[in-house]
């Protein structure tokens, strides 16, 4: 369509989100000194817009406002305009989201904030429509009013921004109070269980009516609660809540039945109509949760869903160099000739389209039955579409169907007089045909940014699934991604992690001119991944790197006065607050995961000061854990691991021996939240033996692979049978 009319500074950035805005008529700046200096020099308000490349409402606001020449002129005249990719700069996002949530009672993206030239916020919100409407003021009006206020009441705005910042500084501080100790684990665990139980949807699973999010942190908590209360009614309920939720999600439209993987969340109570973007962090965490569901239940259904997720990530979110991409968009062009994108266009189906693709008669079924009949019955397809208009305010899905497995295979087979095995083969053939047809549609935008933290979550997904499902290929893929991180997102000179890298035009891996340094979450999720990868592969090099990164994390982020870790390094004058995350949401907050990391690190190294640090984090969050543990289910889970003490399961044996492999398979097949696994292979020069001298005293009994259960480096009597080992592992 010819050369773009406008090009701004964002054209020089690597972030896919910033590049999406490089041809807006708005004179955008990236976050940085050039923009700050201009605001001070010209005494202008900064307009800060924060979003991410697969954010639906970010696209809407760009189309309506940022592509408007008239609104662009207002923005350029009165403001210095800055664009931030929240996935690149979670530190900037968190500071200003804290302000927006505190002053408006809500938050989300796109986030729109107005700052003084010294970066203090004084007004903010999320999405604004371009013009005034019945219920809300338009973006143009807001811009003009703020410009007028800055001209006429500058001193009042400056004073207000100063007071707001001081209030935020006080309310957002998390620190240990006096001599506080870690909260009592049993009470905190029980309260969290009761709070989740009260919010649980008995019919459809999940922990709200709508919208419904996957929240793996809740499910992991319930699995741990079950493991510690297996013989009680509460333990049974915890397990039922988790498995029912996972089953309903897997049957629902939030699960992509044709292209695999999970969409971001469901807009309704039934897990039916999703918000269609797919995020890497969801796939990584859900692969872990479905693998654990399989370990606990033995039900192959859960293992198949885990494999489905990993197939999607391997095929669609994998860089050829080994890293993982961040996300796929919700919006795409319905056809190659369409002029505007629609949400879900890549994933939804009209009934006549399905009939045309699946016309074959089905042998052995009731007369006249076609593949289309069977498929449409099983997946809830309706001739006029199966999307409730209430879930489709813009009528983008009118007449379309979001596939949802509404019948059990048994019911569908009975309906058409088919054998179960035959039905399974038929549905598989149908899905394959639809996948081929869907491949002809224009694909949604792919965010090819690669983030250390999210790659860490995905490595854990592959490593834990590989161990639980005994799939060596998944462990290999995890190792490939970890090697990618060490090559492209680690600076061996400084010993630090980097936040992000990018796919270049020729499929090379590129880095920004000024690389973004890793944040706390990058260290925490990568360290967790390396521990998971060691347990799955027993390659000691991953342990060594994990312990190095843990030392670096302590140095860069630890708060020696108030305890726990800050989210970002000290020393960046553009960040007004140094915060500690206090909520486990779509991803667990870094301090929650790091408690278990520290306990694992102590088990692998003998550095008991890491156990002390874990206790200090729990002490710093003690008040929140005791009042609303449902806000921190992952940290609540870690209180149990802290109080019960991690057990070191040591297998002494030849890594290639069948007896050793049997014992390792046994350990990996059992869900036991308070264990770490290590292999004592007899090589006294190896990293583990140097870290843990007690390993040298452990021997094979009668020349066989032998297991020891150790606590604080004191070990039980040896066992040589898998049956004895299984009994030893039960909590």
Automatic annotation (TrEMBL):
<dbReference type="GO" id="GO:0005975">
    <property type="term" value="P:carbohydrate metabolic process"/>
</dbReference>
<dbReference type="InterPro" id="IPR004879">
    <property type="entry name" value="Ssp411-like_TRX"/>
</dbReference>
<dbReference type="InterPro" id="IPR036249">
    <property type="entry name" value="Thioredoxin-like_sf"/>
</dbReference>
<dbReference type="InterPro" id="IPR008928">
    <property type="entry name" value="6-hairpin_glycosidase_sf"/>
</dbReference>
<dbReference type="Pfam" id="PF03190">
    <property type="entry name" value="Thioredox_DsbH"/>
</dbReference>
<dbReference type="InterPro" id="IPR012341">
    <property type="entry name" value="6hp_glycosidase-like_sf"/>
</dbReference>
<protein>
    <submittedName>
        <fullName>SPT20 protein</fullName>
    </submittedName>
</protein>
<dbReference type="InterPro" id="IPR024705">
    <property type="entry name" value="Ssp411"/>
</dbReference>
<feature type="domain" description="Spermatogenesis-associated protein 20-like TRX">
    <location>
        <begin position="7"/>
        <end position="168"/>
    </location>
</feature>
């Amino acid at each position: 369509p010819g050369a773009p009319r406008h090009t701004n500074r964002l054209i020089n950035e690597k972030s896919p989100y910033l590049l999406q805005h490089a041809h807006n008529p708005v004179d955008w700046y990236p976050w940085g000194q050039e923009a700050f200096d201009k605001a001070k020099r010209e005494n202008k308000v900064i307009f800060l817009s924060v979003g991410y490349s697969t954010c639906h409402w970010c696209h809407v606001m760009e189309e309506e406002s940022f592509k408007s020449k008239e609104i662009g002129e207002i923005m350029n005249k009165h403001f210095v305009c800055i664009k931030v990719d929240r996935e690149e700069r979670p530190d900037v996002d968190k500071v200003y989201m804290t302000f927006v949530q505190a002053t408006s009672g809500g938050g989300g993206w796109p986030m729109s904030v107005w700052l003084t030239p010294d970066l203090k916020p004084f007004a903010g919100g999320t999405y604004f429509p371009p013009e005034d409407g019945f219920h809300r003021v338009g973006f143009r009006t807001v811009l003009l009013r703020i410009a007028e206020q800055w001209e006429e009441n500058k001193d009042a705005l400056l004073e207000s921004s100063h007071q707001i910042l001081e209030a935020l500084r006080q309310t957002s501080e998390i620190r240990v109070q006096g001599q506080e100790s870690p909260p009592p684990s049993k009470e905190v665990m029980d309260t969290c269980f009761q709070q989740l139980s009260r919010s649980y949807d008995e019919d459809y699973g999940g922990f709200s009516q709508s919208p419904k999010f996957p929240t793996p942190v809740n499910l992991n908590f319930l699995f741990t609660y079950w493991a510690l209360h297996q013989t009680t009614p509460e333990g049974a309920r915890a397990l039922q809540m988790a498995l029912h939720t996972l089953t309903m999600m897997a049957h629902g439209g939030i699960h992509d039945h044709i292209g695999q993987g999970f969409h971001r969340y469901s807009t309704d109570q039934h897990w039916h109509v999703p918000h269609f973007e797919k995020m890497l962090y969801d796939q990584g965490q859900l692969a872990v949760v479905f693998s654990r569901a399989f370990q606990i239940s033995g039900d192959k259904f859960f293992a198949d869903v885990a494999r489905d997720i990993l197939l999607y990530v391997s095929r669609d979110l994998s860089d050829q160099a080994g890293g993982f991409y961040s996300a796929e968009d919700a919006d795409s062009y319905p056809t190659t000739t369409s002029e505007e994108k629609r949400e879900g266009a890549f994933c939804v189906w009209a009934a006549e389209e399905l009939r045309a693709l699946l016309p074959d008669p089905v042998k052995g079924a009731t007369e006249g039955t076609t593949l289309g009949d069977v498929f449409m019955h099983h997946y809830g397809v309706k001739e006029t579409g199966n999307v409730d208009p209430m879930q489709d305010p813009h009528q983008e899905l009118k007449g379309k169907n979001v596939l949802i497995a509404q019948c059990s295979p048994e019911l569908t087979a009975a309906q058409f007089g088919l054998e179960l095995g035959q039905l399974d083969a038929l549905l598989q053939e149908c899905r394959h045909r639809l996948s081929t047809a869907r491949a002809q549609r224009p694909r949604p935008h792919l965010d090819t940014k690669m983030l250390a933290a999210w790659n860490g979550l995905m490595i854990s997904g592959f490593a834990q699934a590989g161990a639980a499902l005994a799939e060596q290929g998944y462990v290999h893929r995890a190792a490939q991604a970890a090697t990618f991180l060490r090559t492209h997102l680690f600076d061996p000179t400084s010993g630090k992690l980097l936040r992000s890298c990018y796919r270049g035009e020729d499929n090379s891996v590129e880095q920004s001119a000024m690389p973004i340094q890793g944040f706390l979450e990058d260290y925490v999720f990568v360290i967790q991944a390396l521990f998971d990868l060691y347990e799955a592969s027993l390659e000691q090099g991953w342990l060594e790197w994990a312990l190095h990164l843990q030392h670096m994390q302590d140095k860069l982020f630890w708060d020696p006065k108030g305890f726990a870790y800050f989210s970002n390094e000290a020393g960046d004058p553009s960040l007004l607050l140094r915060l500690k995350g206090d909520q486990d949401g779509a991803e667990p907050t870094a301090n929650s995961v790091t408690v278990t990391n520290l306990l694992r690190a102590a088990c692998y190294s003998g550095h008991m000061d890491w156990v002390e640090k874990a206790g200090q984090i729990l002490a710093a969050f003690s008040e929140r854990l005791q009042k609303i543990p449902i806000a921190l289910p992952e940290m609540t889970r870690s209180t149990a691991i802290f109080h019960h003490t991690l057990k070191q399961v040591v297998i002494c044996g030849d890594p290639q021996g069948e007896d050793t492999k049997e014992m390792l398979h046994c350990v990996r097949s059992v869900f036991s939240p308070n264990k770490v696994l290590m292999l004592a292979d007899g090589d006294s020069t190896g990293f583990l033996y140097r870290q843990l001298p007690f390993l040298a005293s452990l021997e094979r009994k009668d020349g066989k692979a032998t297991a020891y259960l150790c606590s604080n480096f004191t070990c039980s009597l040896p066992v040589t049978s898998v049956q004895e080992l299984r009994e030893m592992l039960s909590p």
